[in-house]
Amino acid sequence: MHELANESFEMKGHKQAGTFANNGPTLSIIIPTFNEAGVINQTLDSLMELPGLEVLIVDGGSFDQTTDLVRERGVTLIRSERGRGAQMHAGAVAAQGDVFWFLHADTRISASSTEKITHALRDPQVVAGNFDLRFDGDRWPAWFLTGFYRQMRKFGLWYGDSALFVRREAYQRAGGFQPYPIFEDLDLSRRLRRIGRIVNLQDVVTTSSRRFEGRSFILTFARWIILQVLFWIGVHPLKLARLYAPIRSSSSETAK
After folding, report:
1. Is residue 57 in some structural domain?
2. CA–CA dist 180, 68 (Å, integer)
């Protein structure tokens, strides 16, 4: 069971769930946060431009100004145990939309993203999807990762950074996000594939490359690859989390 504590369900400036646009599925955007004061306003600004969305911020115990900023915006704020898997599941439990759209706090979407989701879900065989991912920054690691992620998508591998959307019914059938500290996205995608089709949309979302800054990119990337291999051969994410700790950024990054 996932512990859920709802602090506020006020949605000032937003339409309440159930009054979304009539020409497509109702969308609930779920964003896990942990010490995201530096980026959360920019993310919310981009979402304010898209009418008719339910936005839920699920905080894992931030001790910076994240929750104060969210309250000031009048966006739904939910308290949860820390960890992306647990936080995103807590958001799904509270969400009222037909489709759950999971975004990271530092992910920026395009104005056409909701239209792309609506179009993709017209196919009843499609249960979920994700977007083309671009890392910001003008250094070579950002360029490399952008190209690398695009190649991985060709093999059916995608990550939470790429703005996963999933039908409510499919999410529930698959069992939802597990409270894993790492690879909760790969775990869910594996279960979703068993019940339907996952589409890779060409629309681009942009995410921060901050987790790779201020450290040796080659060493960080090598450790990340090793963790991927260990996951796919069956090592449990709870064990992998102990190895993941050295490559996590400081408290400025959302917990994973």
Report:
1. yes
2. 27
3-state secondary structure at position 187: helix
DSSP letters for 201-237: EEEEEEE--GGGTTS-HHHHHHHHHHHHHHHHTT--H
Choose among 88, 89, 95, 85: nearest CA to 186: 85
Task: Write out pLDDT tens, residues 171-196.
Answer: 999 999 999 888 999 999 999 999 99
pTM higher than 0.85: no
Residue at 39 is within a domain: yes
75 is a domain residue? yes
Asked if the structure places residue 68 within a domain, the reply is yes
We report the CATH number of the domain holding residue 111 as 3.90.550.10
Per-residue pLDDT at 29: 96
Question: Which domain covers residue 160, as residue numbers?
Answer: 4-247
pLDDT at residue 149 is higher than 90: no
- In total, how many domains does the chain have? 1
CB 84 within 8 A of CB 105: no
Which residues make Cβ contacts (< 8 Å) with residue 175, sequence separation at least 6?
A: 191
**Which tens digits make up the pLDDT trace of 63-77?**
999 999 999 998 999
